[in-house]
């Protein structure tokens, strides 16, 4: 049995962070009902990379497995009433509306907790529910740029470089996921629900626990060097280097040992914990020059033999075909009714007794509207009337199921 079986989640979120958090709950067995507009959630119409798919684009597909879709118009009185009825049956309500929208819709914590005091209400925002930035757009790149992290890597004087993934969205999703689990555990002990607030700015800030403590407690300024360096608070060499045929990364190699392998006497008398900061730029330049003599595979064999921390630089094709990835079962494959056979990242957390599984792929718009409403005791005639009024929507091929 899945670890969260019997837990019902109402996912009223859009884009990445909220749906990703809800998907993690679904992966662990929760019954996640994606409550989306009758036109479909925003992400259905905004595919990353232009990957549209057949009926469901890849962005939506990747963030909404293990969910049922209830397509409902919350601005229609009948639609709003259905959601409030569902709230009585729910354990977790998750939303990432802009501050103030939940209250205008009548789905704020105060309203819903009065209906269901055991409800865990997860509210996600860009910058917090109040304060001077509460109405600013909470978008991943904008939060990356505010986080300070971009100024910890690269060359001084060159433009900061964003992360190569939707970093803030992912960290915020995991913060919300963690908060929901913790609140559920609290409820098991006490019987009481509560509100859980997560915002993107705090999430990306607090994940830099070590770096910011070096700044605030250690009083070390954030100073990028003239040569490329992967993090201003890590000693040289630390970064990406070109080799004879491609690239590799080196992390904090013992300087004397590195010099021996490179054949460069400059490293012979350097002290790791002092000179690696003083000569950071020269260490980079000499390491880079020396690495051009051999291929990446040749260097990796030499470095691994003496336990110098080094690794290859992968693209996605390399990652997907890596033997450790295959051994771990990092990717999973399943058949989707409209998109066919799909291969996607799987489950990062492994449970020995309650493993995560894919019970269903990302739903079509309103695919489960009838099914969800029947669980509330609605008759076919009542559901047909709601469909006719436009208060809900169901996938066309299931209209008369």
Automatic annotation (TrEMBL):
One of its GO terms (molecular function) is CoA-transferase activity. It holds the Pfam family CoA_transf_3. InterPro entries: CoA-transferase_III_domain, CoA-Trfase_fam_III, CoA-Trfase_III_dom3_sf, CoA-Trfase_III_dom_1_sf. Keywords: Transferase. PANTHER family: BLL6097 PROTEIN, SUCCINATE--HYDROXYMETHYLGLUTARATE COA-TRANSFERASE. This is CoA-transferase family III family protein. It comes from Asticcacaulis biprosthecium C19.
